[in-house]
Specification:
Blueprint lengths: L22 H26 L3 H26 L2 H6 L9 H25 L3 H27 L4 H4 L5 H20 L6 H25 L4 H4 L1 H23 L4 H31 L2 H23 L2
Length: 307
């Protein structure tokens, strides 16, 4: 009989290579892209409901965020030419390829919306650009979750179902925080509602993701990632609570907005750190494989016992 296969690491070394991405660039790219994409959706809502000051502020915010996000990506790539090379083909099965085209389409739309809003010229073109940015915004905010989950990193791939929802909720919290910080108090009621819903959704989905991860969930609770995510939770709940109970106070809106923005940023950096930690520790690759094998063998034995 052939002995049972045992999944072990070679001398305790990592089974997979840890991501070589720089945390400052890529986690920042995740956060800023989410802020831009969700901000465009809020800007479109404000535009449609006549909240012109909020709409203009959020359009400018989204343009600035996507510009910084693209700069962070290019800085990690090393030179701008590498980003341009990704546009030579469109590969639907590649999140990076699709994301590059999304950024290329979303950037001009966000820029046109912001330029028309600030100058007051070409209102129809500005409305079309606002609508285009709002349509692409959710994809820009969440495709980075697919990009991370499509890797072999246990802490990311193991929550491939939940991660896009986490990123969407975190992006909405960030955009709501920006709206609270820059919009007039008289116009921020939708942002306050969005902030509370986003904070609740983010914490609920994160908890569900940790439950499904099993052993790998340790990376979300321990070390640098654990500290970042605990800080993110505290700041997000503080921001949402301040937005909810602060009433019409300008100070409360500013504090709530800052808390939501900081919490969203820490969430992205925490998830990034959890992924690196899970790749560097071979236990998180070996033990889930062993558990999957044992579960498969148990199913096979149960099927053999059936008449």
């Amino acid at each position: 009989m052939v002995p049972r296969a045992e999944f072990e690491s070679y001398y305790g070394r990592p089974v997979i290579k840890a991501p070589s991405w720089a945390a400052r660039d890529i986690a920042g790219y995740f956060f800023l892209g989410g802020l831009a994409g969700a901000g465009s959706v809020l800007a479109a809502g404000a535009h449609l409901t006549g909240r012109t000051t909020t709409a203009t502020a959020m359009k400018v915010s989204s343009l600035g965020a996507i510009g910084l996000s693209a700069a962070a990506l290019v800085n990690d790539l090393g030179r701008p030419g590498r980003f341009v090379n990704m546009l030579r083909v469109l590969k639907p099965t590649s999140p990076m390829s699709v994301g590059s085209w999304l950024l290329s389409a979303y950037g001009p739309a966000a820029g046109g919306a912001a330029l028309c809003a600030v100058t007051g010229r070409l209102p129809r073109a500005g409305a079309a650009a606002t609508a285009g940015a709002a349509v692409l915004g959710p994809l820009v905010a969440t495709y980075t979750a697919v990009l991370a989950a499509d890797t072999a990193v246990p802490a990311w791939h193991g929550v491939h179902r939940e991660l896009p929802y986490v990123f969407a909720a975190s992006a909405t919290a960030a955009a709501s925080g920006m709206a609270l910080a820059v919009a007039p108090v008289a116009e921020n009621s939708p942002a306050r509602c969005a902030a509370v819903l986003a904070a609740a959704a983010e914490q609920t989905v994160l908890r569900a993701a940790e439950t499904r991860l099993g052993l790998v969930a340790e990376t979300y609770r321990q070390g640098r990632a654990g500290a970042l995510l605990r800080g993110a939770k505290a700041l997000t709940l503080l921001g949402a609570g301040t937005a909810l109970f602060g009433g019409r106070s300008r100070t409360a809106a500013a504090i709530g907005g800052a808390g939501l923005l900081a919490g969203s940023a820490l969430t992205r950096f925490g998830i990034f750190a959890a992924g690196v930690a899970s790749a560097e520790d071979p236990r998180y690759t070996v033990l889930p494989q062993r558990a999957a094998r044992e579960a498969r063998e148990a199913r096979e034995r149960a099927e053999e016992r059936q008449p």
